[in-house]
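Structure (tokenized):
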């Protein structure tokens, strides 16, 4: 809800109107409010003060055109017009200023922000989704959800073809991206879960919780600091779900790596001894690494969405055995995908792990 719509209530810092009123007009007595460098139109006719920190001078007609909430607010007879010349009526909102700026950017410069083939940062998308949901701006909400679904899929083959994880590494560097969205697990995973709760989109829950499960327990418990200055926290129920699910997923990842390097070469293999030796050495290497891998189980979906390159690491494996390894890897991922909602204590009726019919 809007924090207030106190017309004529001055926003918080001493700001000076640029309208020619025969002198500078103070429109605020409060301190620490600054004028947005991005959205301050000379011909604006409404001041939006976000979090008592930043004031945006924009156009009532633009807000009302896109948002039913603002439209209805402006339709309510208000004692407007009492302001001194050059002073706009003011609306106070509780939203983080950076988030409100992101929403305005889409409203005013939509095509540049949501270019069809361009990936947007999750923080921008999240701000737009949260605020378009709050202010009932349907087209932005729809666009944001469509982009969320390109990374938070419910169908394995769609996920495998449209989204990809980056190289396995430290949890702070794990990215999930598609052609239209990029998520950084360290900063975005918890916010993604909360967004999905907000808009009630169960099909996106499993991947979002999976991303949370990649975080260390202390981060899951304490939350993550967002670019907008707030901290994203899981609800108590979701905390339990995430921590219990994390245990299940770690066990899945361990079993997965055991099965991946089963030292059985392909039927067409012509270098059986060499390939068996390679697979055995990989398998024993993973055994030794297991303690290390426990907290880096994003390996579960490593390679999803792209071909794993035949690096020099695999040069000792013949071509048919390498293809067999890749095939086992995809099937292992598909199996884990199939069990993902259950491992996370979720039920998603549309969840789909079956190979697409082609
Ligand atoms: Zn072979």
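Design, position by position:
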């Amino acid at each position: 809800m809007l924090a207030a719509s106190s017309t004529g209530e001055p926003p918080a810092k001493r700001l000076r109107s640029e309208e020619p009123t025969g002198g500078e007009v103070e429109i605020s007595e409060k301190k620490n409010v600054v004028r947005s460098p991005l959205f301050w139109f000379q011909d604006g006719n409404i001041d939006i003060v976000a979090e008592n920190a930043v004031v945006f001078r924009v156009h009532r007609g633009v807000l009302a055109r896109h948002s039913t909430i603002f439209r209805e607010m402006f339709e309510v007879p208000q004692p407007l017009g009492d302001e001194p010349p050059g002073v706009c009526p003011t609306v106070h909102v509780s939203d983080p200023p950076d988030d409100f700026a992101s929403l305005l950017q889409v409203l005013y410069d939509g095509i540049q922000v949501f270019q069809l083939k361009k990936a947007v940062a999750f923080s921008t998308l999240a701000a737009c989704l949260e605020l378009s949901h709050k202010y009932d701006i349907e087209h932005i909400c729809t666009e944001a959800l469509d982009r969320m679904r390109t990374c938070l899929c419910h169908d394995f083959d769609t996920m495998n073809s449209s989204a990809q994880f980056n190289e396995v590494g430290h949890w702070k560097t794990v990215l999930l991206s598609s052609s239209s969205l990029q998520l950084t697990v360290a900063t975005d995973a918890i916010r993604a879960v909360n967004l999905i709760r907000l808009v009630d989109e169960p099909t996106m829950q499993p991947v979002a919780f999976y991303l949370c499960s990649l975080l260390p327990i202390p981060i899951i418990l304490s939350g993550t600091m967002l670019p907008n200055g707030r901290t994203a926290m899981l609800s108590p129920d979701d905390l339990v779900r995430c921590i219990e699910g994390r245990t299940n997923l770690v066990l899945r990842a361990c079993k997965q790596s055991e099965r991946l390097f089963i030292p059985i070469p392909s039927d067409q293999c012509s270098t059986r001894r060499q390939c068996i030796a390679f697979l055995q050495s990989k398998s024993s290497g993973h055994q030794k690494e297991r303690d290390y891998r426990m907290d880096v189980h994003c390996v579960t979906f490593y390679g999803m969405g792209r071909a794993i390159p035949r690096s020099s690491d695999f040069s000792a494996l013949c071509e048919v055995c390498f293809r067999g390894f890749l095939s086992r890897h995809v099937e292992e991922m598909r199996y884990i995908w199939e069990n993902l909602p259950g491992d996370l204590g979720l039920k998603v009726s549309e969840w789909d792990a079956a190979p697409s019919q082609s």
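Reviewer-requested clarification: The CA atoms of residues 277 and 338 lie 32 Å apart. The chain has two domains: 1-94, 146-343.
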